[in-house]
Amino acid sequence: MIDQAVTAFAAARAQTSAAIAPLTQAQLDFRPRHGSWSIGEVADHLLLAEDLYRGEIEQLIGMVKRGERPYLRRSFAEVNVSPLHLPDFMLSLLEVPFGITSRMIPQTVRSVVTRYPLLPTRNPDVATPRPGRPGDELRRDLSDSLARTRALIADNAGMDFTKMVSEHPLTGATNVEEIFGFLSLHERRHHVQMERVRTNPQFP
Fold first, then answer.
1. What is the number of domains present in the chain?
2. Environment class of residue 94 by beta-carbon count within 10 Å: exposed (0-12), middle (13-18) or buried (19+)?
3. pLDDT tens-digit map of 156-166
4. 0.70 cut: is pTM over it?
5. What is the CATH number of the domain that holds 43?
6. Are 82 and 44 in contact (CB under 8 A)?
7. Is 92 domain-assigned?
8. Does 204 fall in a domain?
9. Could you tell me which of 145, 177, 140, 174 has the C-alpha nearest to residue 161?
């Protein structure tokens, strides 16, 4: 199952790479309006999100190798993804209620919310894109990052990734296979955003 989950993520990444492959730097940097993201920034956000979760998977694998229970609990202070417009000072107050609620939400519902922007959310600071990144760097990093993620799983083949769990108050408890499912859906969600930018009448 982990192989299928990684393959699905790789397919989503291939679509990302194909979308930005023909774009000029001006096209990558174009923003439809103030405060919105360019296609280049969306791509960089996807890279940062993958890096965040790859780091969590590395930690979980390390726990298994040390004989520890592979369970990570992340707080809003560590990863401050949250519903849009919710002030930071309220996150710590709502951490327990969000955590209880997220445990009750089925994985299928969480998948739908991830794939489609039904619940507007603020991206965590660690995944805030860096504007103006050169296109050649983005194209290379999209490929290299995926290769590192695939190698991490391949180098630890035989482990039970369903027993490795990361929990966050907003997204709930997800094992590594589910993390790859999230990454795939998250990437495809942002493909729609990239296409909206590309079809903007002012797109260069």
1. 1
2. middle
3. 999 999 999 99
4. yes
5. 1.20.120.450
6. no
7. yes
8. no
9. 177
